[in-house]
Amino acid sequence: MRKRVTASDVASQAGVSRSLVSAFLNNTPGITVSAENRAAITNAIRELGYTVNVQAQSIKTGRSNCIAVYGDVYNALFLQMVEGIQRASGPAGYHVLLYGQGRNVESREGLTALYRQGRIDGVITLDFPDLLAPAWEEAVREWGMPYVTVEGIPASSGILAVETDYAASIRQALEFMEAEGWPSPVYLNVLPSGRPQTRGDRQRLMAYENWMREKGRQPQVYPVPDEPWSLRSGWWREWLAGRELPLGVLSNWSRGALHVYRAAHEQGLRIGRELFVMSADDTERVSRLMIPAVPCMEVPYGEMGEAAFMLLLQAMAHRVEAAKETETEVRRVVEARLFTGKE
After folding, report:
1. Of 169, 168, 170, 150, which is closest to residue 160 (Cα–Cα)?
2. For residue 198, which phi and psi values (nearest 5 degrees)?
3. Cβ within 8 Å of residue 108, ≥6 positions away
4. Dihedrals φ, ψ of 245, to 5°?
5. Which H/E stretch holds residue 190?
6. What's the CA dihedral at 49, 50, 51, 52 to 10 degrees?
7. Partners of 72 in the beta sheet?
8. How many other C-beta atoms can be found within 10 angstroms of the C-beta atom of residue 53?
9. CA-to-CA distance for 78 and 101, rounded, in angstroms?
């Protein structure tokens, strides 16, 4: 039978002490594992196929070595965040419980119940880029539950958060469009259905307006409800037919870019000749599938998931208690990435 790989084997392979491997695996409070040693240990775990004996570890530490991840399971971006969390949590010996909400279901009470029962050690949620519900923040504080929000905006500095800089992503998109020699872009402000615009949407719009004015140009903003093509196709056809060509378009949401593509195809317009389209909130996975590919600012949900887990790991080890006095120390910003469509 194959000999079971031990933590000592991992330490030898990584060139570190057995105690440091133990600190990494158990998130031992007061012991900081450097990024270099963390990478070495992680690589050794992968190369040797080491697995944590979760049952023994749970008895020793009083932890479940399981975290809950909550979000809309119908949202592909949520699933990308889960992928990032799994990449980071696996080497640390943590399992991920997918506690996904269904459509039109907002209940989170079960999360605090799981924590009180000792079945999970912490929670990560994907939220709209706006204020968190006060009742949820109160429940997190009441039970002292380690918690990280991705994109949500806490009312207090005691809640850990991971976000992206929407304003910076718009400026980067506009600089790319100008460098490519595209026409001065109009802005499609796709409006969410059934709820007000988020802070992220407002930041994008303001960044576009400010950039245009800085360049001595008049902002051209076209609000449009976020509705299916079957309901709004007439609006998109008429809107595009009334524009002067060549036309540059920057859409705050990827669905806006998709509808422009459809309307352009029906009118025989050539993308990259008469029409230039870019999305400010998209993922490379989606953009690559369109012909031609849509340049976009990719919100890196996978990396945000990894960052969220690392913050949660600190919270579970009680390493951020002293940092909770200042918001900047409990907030991580992951920059959006430019996908040019040329790769």
Report:
1. 150
2. -80, 170
3. 70, 125, 136, 139
4. -105, 150
5. strand 185-191
6. -170
7. 101
8. 14
9. 11
Amino acid at 19: S
pLDDT in tens, 112-132: 888 888 889 999 999 988 889
Which of 255, 245, 164 shows the shortest CA–CA distance to 207?
164
Nearest to 80 by CA among 296, 282, 256: 282
One-letter identity of residue 276:
F
What distances in angstroms separate CA 5 from CA 24, 50, 109, one per listed residue? 16, 6, 39
pTM: 0.76
Residue with tokens 């918690």: 147
Distances (CA, A) of 76 to 16, 106, 285: 39, 18, 10
What are 139-184's pLDDT values in tens digits?
Answer: 998 888 999 999 998 987 779 999 999 999 999 999 999 999 999 9
Nearest to 80 by CA among 334, 314, 316: 334
Q: How far apart are CA 78 and CA 98, in angstroms?
A: 11
* Residue that the structure tokens 């133990």 belong to: 22
